[in-house]
Amino acid sequence: MKIHEYQAKDLLRAAGVPVLAGRVARTADEAAAAFAALGTPVCAVKAQIHAGGRGKGQVTGSTQRGVELARSADDAARIARGLLGKSLVTVQTGPAGQTVRQVFVESGCRIARELYCAVLVDRRVGSPVLIASTAGGVDIEEVAAKTPEAILSEPFDADRGLAGYQARLLAAKLGLPTASWRAAEQFFGSLTRAFVRLDASLLEINPLVLTEDGALVALDAKMTFDDNALFRHKDVVALRDEAEEEPAEIRAAAAGLSYVKLDGTIGCLVNGAGLAMSTMDLVKLHGGAPANFLDVGGGADVKAVTEAFRIILSDPAVKAVLVNIFGGIMRCTTIATALVEASKTVGFTVPLVVRLEGTEVEEGRRILAESGTTIISATGLTDAAKKVVAAASRA
Amino acid sequence: MSILVNRDTRVICQGITGRVGEFHTRGCLEYGTRMVGGVTPGKGGEEVAGLPVFDTVAEAVDSTGANATMIFVPPPFAADAILEAVGAGIELVIAITEGIPVLDMARVLPVVKASQSRLVGPNCPGVITPGQCKIGIMPGYIHTPGHVGVMSRSGTLTYEAVWQLTSLGHGQSSCVGLGGDPLVGSSFIDILALFEADPDTHAILMIGEIGGSAEEEAAEFVRHHVTKPVAAFIAGRTAPPGKRMGHAGAIISGGKGTATAKLEALRAAGIEVADSPADMGEAVVRAMARGGRR
To answer: What ipTM did this prediction achieve?
Structure first.
């Protein structure tokens, strides 16, 4: 689960991580009032969307950037007006961009150096790790690709936390003046504690700023949470902004389905994540483009599968649907019954190719045949892919 | 021969009194697995599927001599269940549970590493040695005894591969589901080492997916330490970056964990790659036709 920058900063402030004063605004007037209330000569007005690259991002059809500096309340209102209700396109949003519904007005600071740091779980080491780099403010993926040695890394135990010496070691390697080492211990210590306490999956500070008076400040904050741990963080769940999420993905999650929207024309309904990914790959391999990833899971019932069909068919781009089931715990009869049920209640407006294999497959095929539902049967993976691609291109 | 489990493996189920735990305990019993009991705190003395239920794993081990466990305990308590099994000295701990917080696993893994226990999973279908022992949720009937070792990060995709192998007349020595989470107890490398040492395994099929770098590390291991033919498939070539594809571990983040990078590493190590999921079984046949790696 993702949250906005201003929400992440609230959490960090409460955890003792130094952040600048700021206020969220949903209208131009609120932005002007925020500027006045903060009382600093310069403020940053920052678009709040669940995507990175906002600073370099641009509002569709204007020269408005996602982050700009304001030197007066009027200035702040003007920038807010240029962002609110508009679509901001960044490297992470795709060409359609994402609608800005709120801006964060944040007081400025005197920057001496811009650094980078992040906390995440290192799969190879099997523990959380604090990484840092002197290349702040720039695309860290580029740094990682071009100069991996420029990225410093300190793994730490979730319960013991980051040791003071590890923070000093990083401070030394980052070239921070010794006068700022106490600040580094405080900053990195509270940041890593917040990561563990909140069950975050990523906590990225880019840039992390060394101010002219030697303090460390989180100038930006990106925070995502481990979905599997949300059951023990009701306060975090309360920060969810569903307006930022794909409606079909929210709907699928409510039905216990795993769904990701893609931009192709072939809807996919599969059981199991690995098989669902492979089915997308298979469609692509045979010249089609998948419209979605959808895993109905192993324990899905007729109701969940019917909802899965509804979600897939509600995407107007879908020209054909491929059902690929390898019945293990999931019985082919369950899928067949759900298919018949869905054809009655949802109505199939596009061709449907079905490939069933595994537990109770004969009985499942019989249910489909006897129902009179119009489907295209496939005998294997390749056959299924060819048939669905052909059906989609005819439509 | 086989790896990890055989007809002598004595298995308990943690979470046996739950609906899913009971269902799969019965499935394993039907397959012929030597299920010897179950554990649910507070339900000791009860009986499920004709098996005795114990309050603690330690008691279950004392009474039954169990040396393996399969865990169906719900996510909030699953990490504790793994620790309990390790504490009781169980040799093989197979965690089926999906949805365990990743930091819980970060706390568990060092304890497992410092013990004599081996952990497989979590979020995995389990381990099967066809015709001898099934521990987990896979449909037993698709498997057939033979000489191909299968290991995978995915469930249904493994069934698909096993089905293809069986249809081509190639049975399996053992099949191991490693799990779809970012942090799991056993890696491809751990299982590759076991298959390499098992005289009954003549070829190995590795089924990976996007996210992390386990496949790249496995490719490097194969290059230096595996003499048997290896084939592989990677799921998720069309997956967009930054999106979790069902499995918590199946996500391309920061440009890392792409299928392209994994496929390159596999090919560079001389592994026979299946480009289509329909080609996994045939890829094993091709790898065997090419013969041993040295």
So the answer is: 0.91
